[in-house]
Amino acid sequence: MSKDELFELGTNLDGVDVAFRRDRWAVKGTRAEKRAERSVAFWFALAGLAGLAFGLIYVFWPKDAKGNGIATGWEYAGIDDPGYLMYTVYTPLLGLTLGLAVLSIGIGAVVYTKKFIPEEVSIQDRHDGGSSEVDKKTVVAVLGDSLTTSTIGRRKLIIGSGLFGVGAVGTMAILPFLGAMIKNPWKGGDKAALWVSGWTPDYPGQTIYLRYDTGRPHDIVLVRPEDLDAGSMMTVFPFKEAHRNDEHALFEELRGIRNAVMLIRLRTKDAEGAIKRRGQESFNYGDYFAYSKICTHLGCPTSLFEQQTNKILCPCHQSQFLATEYGKPIFGPAARALPQLPLTVIKEKGPDGKVEEFLVAASDFHESLGPAFWERKTT
Ligand code: FES
């Protein structure tokens, strides 16, 4: 049986009556047909270019275009910062190129269907049950016929542009996962971004204070032990004295994505019964315990502290950590404890000349912060 006969048999066996069928281009190779082909190729090529643009923006948009240490790219910039415009257009540009690429693929497919797939009106009866061997064979013939009559096989321009467009859109989907392979996250060795935070001293013995965020980077308010009531929590950030007059460094300390720390003052009874991690027995200062605020599941801020149960909650996927047990996860998808910041106090003269106690970090975190990654040794 020829392919056409099998096709007809297939439609008949399926109870399909092809009432009307007409090739879109009875005369092949006309200028109109070529024009139609180019219009499809245009949309696929546009999808490819938009996908390419997405990839270039994603990979090469600078963090610091001016090289002056001030964020002028994808990293957050405040409304008064020089890089504000670059920062504000970054995400919309990604959205625009992604949307344009997907839309162009869709339009290209619709235009192709309208211009090249034969016009057809078919009527089919509904039936139940599985398919017989003959049905399966004829389905293959029908699909083969569809491929032939779609004329895609001889349209090299459309195939090429289609592969370009679909390839670029597919690349967009996996780009975030390839990101770490394109940019070396370990550039800088021990100082690579994943190993350090604002709590990492610039030199051994540097004092790093705990401070509040008042909303104004230059407004430095240090944390004193008496500032918290028992059973309460506050978010604190690092402050290095060397940065006092450096507006940008102060801003970075407050906005650095790995810098936020939950300072918790447990009730004395709870603090006395707290279970500590081996080697980290001295990390708390009295009733004060400090944990990284960056969830070890996917990096959301673990902003909620339940006073009655001493649980720390992450609102993203409901992970719970126990403040009385070294930040250990007790519920939800997070598998690692929240890293604990070692605390101590120093005595210093305050602005009014009186000697006061201030909470400071006794050292850097002893492990890297945030979600797991392959090279991480700690559990
Ligand atoms: S990011 Fe915290 S539970 Fe998922």
TrEMBL record:
> What are the UniProt keywords, alphabetically?
2Fe-2S, Cell membrane, Disulfide bond, Electron transport, Iron, Iron-sulfur, Membrane, Metal-binding, Oxidoreductase, Respiratory chain, Transmembrane, Transmembrane helix, Transport
Q: What is this protein called?
A: Cytochrome bc1 complex Rieske iron-sulfur subunit
Cite the SUPFAM superfamilies for this sequence: ISP domain (SSF50022)
The species is Antrihabitans stalactiti
**Pfam families cross-referenced by the UniProt entry:** QcrA_N, Rieske
Annotated compartments: Cell membrane
- Give GO terms: molecular function aspect only: 2 iron, 2 sulfur cluster binding; metal ion binding; monooxygenase activity; oxidoreductase activity, acting on paired donors, with incorporation or reduction of molecular oxygen
**What sequence ranges are listed for the domain Rieske?**
286-352
